[in-house]
Amino acid sequence: MTQSATKMQWKAEACCGQARAGHLHTAHGTIPTPTFMPVGTAGTVKAMTMDAVRATGAGIILGNTYHLMLRPGAERVRKMGGLHRMMDWSGPILTDSGGFQVMSLGALRKLDQDGVTFNSHIDGSKHRLTPESSTDIQHALDATITMCFDECPALPATPERLESSMELSMRWAARSREAFVQRPGYGQFGIVQGGTERDLRARSAKALTDIGFEGYAIGGLAVGEGQELMFSTLDFTTPLLPQDHARYLMGVGTPDDLLGGVERGVDMFDCVMPTRAGRTARAYTERGTLNLRNARHAGDNRPISPDCDCLACSRHSRAYLHHLFRANEILGPMLLTWHNLAYYQRLMREIRAAIVNGTLPQKAEELRASWAAGDWSQDEFPQPDWPPVP
Amino acid sequence: MTQSATKMQWKAEACCGQARAGHLHTAHGTIPTPTFMPVGTAGTVKAMTMDAVRATGAGIILGNTYHLMLRPGAERVRKMGGLHRMMDWSGPILTDSGGFQVMSLGALRKLDQDGVTFNSHIDGSKHRLTPESSTDIQHALDATITMCFDECPALPATPERLESSMELSMRWAARSREAFVQRPGYGQFGIVQGGTERDLRARSAKALTDIGFEGYAIGGLAVGEGQELMFSTLDFTTPLLPQDHARYLMGVGTPDDLLGGVERGVDMFDCVMPTRAGRTARAYTERGTLNLRNARHAGDNRPISPDCDCLACSRHSRAYLHHLFRANEILGPMLLTWHNLAYYQRLMREIRAAIVNGTLPQKAEELRASWAAGDWSQDEFPQPDWPPVP
């Protein structure tokens, strides 16, 4: 058995400023970091086959405990052979704890010191999550990375609210750790809370590192505070975390958010943006975003991007994608989700290469200038010679 | 230039009773017949990438003139390089004439001797189709096979209504032929009308063969008359058509309809059933149909079928598909449409092989007995060893 299978470990390969390039070794394979995790909420990355997800270069995906416990149910997933077998994904899977979704989706929720009782947003049925049950459910799902069950208050919040919430989350983190069953190559991440308060973040980080986890997440950001406040919070939070463990910024974000997160020492990200945008005609590109429903694409025989090798860009024009979205054809979301995830993965590969080469500052400047430049002109990006139809 | 590229021709390979195995040679390649054409109404086979369509073994697909003329518009398709380049499909494409859809979808339609004026079901805008404009539009779409513009009355209809409609369609067929621009490997099919009236069908077939087309379609069936009446109409209609040309039964049907059509001398079929059913959780199998929303599949770790090599069956369980449909996930329709089209193509390959081997009667008996037998028991089809996740 190789070391990667006996212990979940993150190992650094190179640094550039605060940014780190490394590898996360897990029971389900080794993945390069920084990495972006496509979101597979209900056991599927929406509008994507797993072959398509693999084709984008994704190394690790995310599942949602809240959704999966309600439908099809954790025990059912276990009987299907776990989330990997069910979804047809052999790489690592990280599951969130359900804490965030209970707060954002669950109805009639009631928080107490022991956990949260709530009603399903699907059928109104009553459920309860505690640090112990969330951890057990993630075990039944066979998550490679289990997240601690936490409470995540919306921002802005008073310092008092943030403090009591953080303290509750830290007690829950200890209980989550207690409930976690160690298995070779599996791991559990603690979640630093404390909003935008430096002192609270420091106390939270201390509490978690005292317990000791296989990785550390930064929670409670990207909940309405804006990019500037998120970045300034990261500036003082990541240095509080161990240098030799993976760091995960939860629920983030735009390409520019990812770049800023990496520059501040984050290794892992997840967000619904590229998949959700793919279903609403919004394309991410090297030149910012495009809305393919816009009439200006109706007669444009160029692909979305000259630099992309996804199925949409290698075989289809903007005009065709425009038509598919106007006609509400499922193929529109299928092709554009693929494109957006391919872009996110390519972006992370390029950022990682720049860290390894020690050229991240120049790369970051280039990326930001390109995003700001707007869509390619017809001169910069002329009508391509389409390859023969296979 | 090969012969197949200079002239559209159907050539027989073997017969078995009335059933025929052959090849249709076109500018866009040669396809074996009998064949089922997946429907790509608006320039996409719904919920399928073209790579997936190719993987099912489909050889020729269908496009809808009515839908495409309204959105994105024939001229726009032409500027996109034609339907093949737009959709990423190098094989032959047959387009219907729009006549049937004008009658079933168009609003405020007004029929005259010259053509039909109607309002778009999308935005209410006013349009007109005539034999000439329908033929021109199909030319702009770059259809490999152009269909004559016809009028298709719903059944039941009075003999008088059927007669006047058939006579109008025959006059329109002559005008369609006049408007058709011959190109190497491209062709045009006439459409036999006349409802279930033997005399009318005979007069229609005579009118069309006197004009002379590259193939002959049987229209005006599968519009509510029932399978028995459809088959009895085929029994006297196909013998009226030339032995050395392809025959196409429009808008048909279930697997049992296809088998019965082939037994009666039909070479080509199209129908929305496998694709539509794929979006509504209905699976076609060797053992009849299954509704994957049904609770009995919720815990079934077997694939849909033990005999299918589609993506759904080779990688996923019924339990997972059940979950996807219950959760309204796009991947459900994606996987099940793939499965259904794969089943239809496999069925046609098996039927064709039986014609070539001279064993169609036995094969037909086997197929019908299997459809009637119902879903596999757990003994017949035990829980499989799933292959490793790639």
TrEMBL record, chains A, B:
Pathway: tRNA modification; tRNA-queuosine biosynthesis. The active site is at residues 96, 270. InterPro entries: ArchSynthase1/Queuine_TRR (IPR050076), TGT (IPR004803), TGT-like_sf (IPR036511), tRNA_ribo_trans-like (IPR002616). Homodimer. Within each dimer, one monomer is responsible for RNA recognition and catalysis, while the other monomer binds to the replacement base PreQ1. Zn(2+) binds at residues 308, 310, 313, 339. One of its GO terms (molecular function) is tRNA-guanosine(34) queuine transglycosylase activity. Belongs to the queuine tRNA-ribosyltransferase family. Keywords: Glycosyltransferase, Metal-binding, Queuosine biosynthesis, Transferase, tRNA processing, Zinc. One of its GO terms (cellular component) is cytosol. This is Queuine tRNA-ribosyltransferase. Binds 1 zinc ion per subunit. Residues 17-371 form the tRNA-guanine(15) transglycosylase-like domain. It catalyses: 7-aminomethyl-7-carbaguanine + guanosine(34) in tRNA = 7-aminomethyl-7-carbaguanosine(34) in tRNA + guanine. Pfam families: TGT. Substrate binds at residues 96-100, 150, 193, 220. Its cofactor is Zn(2+). Its EC number is 2.4.2.29. Residues 251-257, 275-279 are annotated as: RNA binding. GO terms for biological process: tRNA queuosine(34) biosynthetic process. Catalyzes the base-exchange of a guanine (G) residue with the queuine precursor 7-aminomethyl-7-deazaguanine (PreQ1) at position 34 (anticodon wobble position) in tRNAs with GU(N) anticodons (tRNA-Asp, -Asn, -His and -Tyr). Catalysis occurs through a double-displacement mechanism. The nucleophile active site attacks the C1' of nucleotide 34 to detach the guanine base from the RNA, forming a covalent enzyme-RNA intermediate. The proton acceptor active site deprotonates the incoming PreQ1, allowing a nucleophilic attack on the C1' of the ribose to form the product.
